[in-house]
Structure formats: C-alpha cells, structure tokens
Fold this sequence. Notes:
Layout: H1 8-19, H2 33-47, H3 59-65, H4 75-90, H5 102-115, H6 122-128
Helix pairs in contact: 1-2, 1-4, 2-5, 3-5, 4-5
Amino acid sequence: MATQGFSKLSAYKAFSKMDKSCAQGCKCSALCQLFMAKEFLSLSAQTGEKFNDKIPEDILDMFRSVPLIPERYKNMELQEAFFEVQSICDGCATDEHDSYCTVNVVLTALGILLEGKDFMTDKDKELAGN
Length: 130
C-alpha cells in the first residue's frame, strides 16, 4: 500500500474504514476508543486540519484507561482501518511528528484496540528513544 500524506480525502477514507469497524448493533459510547477516534478523525476530514483543540492532553492515557471491549468492533475491518491510518502517518516526516496530531491519536487508539494498552506508534517510540 502506498503511503499518503494527510489530506481531507485520506482522513475521510480512513474514517470510512473505521466506521465499518463497528460491530453490528453496537451502540456508540463516549467510553470507546473507536468512537473517540472516529470523532477526532471526522473533524479532521471536515476541516483538513491535523491538529484541533478538542483533543485533550491526556487523550492517550484516556485511551489506555478505557476498558477494551472486543465485542464492539470487527477485527478484520479494524486492522484495515489501522493500516489506512498508518499509511497517512508514514506519509509525514518524523521531524514533523507530534503525539497530539489527530493521525497519531487515532492510530494509537486503533493500535490499543488491536495490540493492547501498551501500544505506541512507531514515531512515538522514536521520539521517546525506545
């Protein structure tokens, strides 16, 4: 899959894949990583901005503190959404990386759902020196 930078279109495509990740009949809850991630990415798809002031500074800790409920999402679709967002992240230079960029926040949320609460994006690991 080719890497792509951030744009309204790439954000919208990733949002669409995330939207298909929700389990059938699941009622959205603010205490769901996928719900929160979709909210942030939806806003970015509308505004074309990678940063917005609606993302709280403790968002990554919040994602890790919310219980993981696998019944809320479809794993295959979630993996597709993860790779879609990863390709947007890969399209940005590491020296432009920010932990609170919408793309990084969304990628972290999806990674936590797929890999567990210790998940960190590759670029966050680089910045942390891991």
